Fold these 2 entries.
Entry 1:
Amino acid sequence: MKYLDEYRDAEACKRWIEAIRRRITRPWTMMEVCGGQTHSIVRFGLDELLPPELTLIHGPGCPVCVTPVEILDVAMAIAAMPGVTFCSFGDMLRVPGSRQDLLRVKSAGGDVRIVYSPIDAVAIAQKHPERQVVFFAVGFETTAPANAMAVLQAARLGLENFSMLVSHVLVPPAIRGVLESPNCRVQGFLAPGHVCAVMGTEEYRPIAAEYRVPIVVTGFEPLDILQGVWQCLNQLEEGRAEVEIQYSRAVRPEGNPRAMDAIREVFEPVARKWRGIGEIPASGLGLRPAYARFDAQNRFPIPPIAAEEPAECMAGEILQGHRCPRECPAFAVRCTPERPLGAPMVSAEGACAAYYRYRR
Amino acid sequence: MCLGIPGKVIETFERDAMPMAKVEFGGIVKETCLAYTPEVQVGDYVIVHVGFAISRIDEAEAQEIFSCLREIEAAVEGPE
């Protein structure tokens, strides 16, 4: 496919790696923020081809992984209610809550459906006025415009049987969180390309300046990642800490203003708890009061559930880049994609799932 | 979750006043919402995420990675 195949060219990859090898003079540690980048790195073995001085550590950019167990428990309680059709991206179905997952709710008779787009959930609500249709709105800035449009459309159609369980998260506060950690080893970031295609780069400039870290907005294919590493390396070697765009075929500095307008119309920043990490102020999005009637947590008041995390899962350490999946004693033994202890083993963007699939 | 796939716009149309497109991904055609990229035309490539085109691909920028690599290599080898 055009714009995929040419960025996976093995010969060009070797030439980039050679350029990086010649340029590097001492050890450096970079973090790729997005789980999609992590999968590309592990799948194509880029980390093993890069010079040993360069360490890539995997970041928290997996929305499925960071969705708090409390919200998952609420999702399962709503999904099990009679009269409810619960719609979700496929990734969320196997993520363990305190006691079960959405797939088990489905097999017990709950109407749980996988949708490709939030718009599909709106269409189901339109077609089935007798059902309460709930969409599980998770994701980063990339997904927020689509979810905002679903709410706008439901409002325009006057749908009274559509609502959203919102657990949106934001990337810049997560990067700040990583940098504030006392154990932080990260000297430069490969920032997530599709998030920045939506939000642009403006919010990253103060982070680069304050913490003196280079931030390179990077794509997802092997050549993208190698060029992102090259640009980040050059900044580190030259003592610069700037925001640069490697993924310029899709990212403009201003982002996508129309998409940002829709996000701001529907959502507002809220404090959000990140699974395995804890609460980060203003790190998520919630519905604005004008759209509160679409909030599933208002529509279906669920009594508080005592959330439980499996004691053996070290997802928090992995999501912050402090540990690697293979350091976990449960990895591929008591934790597998079929029987996961934590979300990073389930999600297509989870670091544990990447290591299970490509490095066992 | 942030997976975005590049695809080619093969047809544009409107549905309920919403700009839409048929986008082809290596032989598979999917309906895609153009609410956030209404400027795209048939023949353009877009990045599609959960049914929405979030960005139009800039062809000149797409080639930059290859010219950049040649420049780096030329600088290492030096003038002949």
Entry 2:
Amino acid sequence: MKRVSVFKAKAVLKVIAIIAPLLLNINGLALAATQEAPAVSPVPEVVAEPHAAAEAPGEAHEAAAGGEEKAGDVIMHHILDNNVIAFEPFGEIELPKIVIGGFDISITKHVVMLWTVSVIVIGLFAIAGGKYKNMTSRQAPKGLANALEALVQFIRDDVAKANIGKGYEKYLDFLLTAFFFILVCNLLGLVPYGATATGNINVTLTLATFTFFITQAAALKAHGIKGYLAHLTGGTHPALWIIMIPIEFIGLFTKPVALTIRLFANMTAGHIVILSLIFISFILKSYIVAVVMSVPFSIFIYLLELFVAFLQAFIFTMLSALFIGLASAHEGHDEHEAGAAHH
Amino acid sequence: MLTSGTILLAGSLLSPNPGLIFWTAVTFVIVLLILKKIAWGPIISALDEREKGIQSSIDRAHQAKDDAEAILKKNRETLARADAEADRIIREGKEYADRLRADISEKAQAEAKKMITSAKDEIEQEKRRALDVLRNEVADLAVRGAEKIIKTTLDADLQKKIVDSMIQDLSTKRN
């Protein structure tokens, strides 16, 4: 349906484009004069990128002030962490700076987003968990509890049980929390005034570090200290240890680094693409570009981002489970190939 | 526009932020603990319980099916036995009936034979009695004929001839 209306608009605008290149100049002048026209008018049916729309007027100001180069700054401003939460038309909230013992632990935009995510996740599961407490095993779950149960069961059976195998119950709490936490973080970047905390490498690094420690703990528990150290030699002849030990040692860290970069880059890239598509219309100062290209394409990318939000949360959880499973597996060597295949 | 690329490369995208790391760790751990308490415990135990319930239902269903099959088998066996029994009874009945019929007809034949022989005997007796009577009659006749002959007085040769021819006659008649 959307696509049809877009094509119609496209046809009409083609005619306009043929008749009046002049119109473009007038538009451009009008843009320069008023500056808020394009932000409002081309995007009325765009459910797709509300935060882009919200960001747009601010961008318009800056673009007008400093010219085209500023677009990159604005995009980065949107992606990066800072101390301000902007509710564009209504003003903004300055967040407090806290420095304790030389460490800057100020509350930033992404910290607020993390807390929002925590509240959402805990709220959802408080409702769902409450329902389970009042439920006998003969009753089927309904509504929210049922929806969440489907995801929980998916993580439990297809991620944890499938990759870790025996003794998966110990890691289930971490995997479930990581999945829902990352999922809601990813989705929060797609709503107005939200930001993607998982698009910040510090956040993904911290989450991956949890996986790293749990993986090492699982390995130590499964093989003992001796087995763990023997594992670092790769089971080769002592003459090769001088090569093997550094390689295996680096190998320990590549897994969490891969997790970190994958999640961070995926979330950041999607947002940059959406914002760039929107900004093309501002840079070219054209309604036509906005209607023909920016809006439909960013809707498409936005829908893709919705999918990616689920996919990346799943992949992070899946790989965490896989690493834990590999670390606690009792076979020596083919696990490395299996692990490498996933990088 | 080109600067956006340089910002991406040189900018603060990859810059470390200890504060954010700290808050992420704290937040995540707290969320983990709260969710463990309020959600994962109840949900996972409910799932396990339901799994067990379903498994036991399936087991019970299998058990019931096995039982039903056993009963069905037993019923079939009983039915087969009953059929065999019925067959046997019918067969026996038939055999008995055949035997009975044979017996009866045998008996009847024997009876009939007996009756025939007794009838024959009786006939024989009757015949004998009739012959006796006849003989007496003949004797009387002979006596009477002799009287007549004697009355007509004939010689002894003639008399003899007459008697002989008479006896001859009688004997041919008798045969």
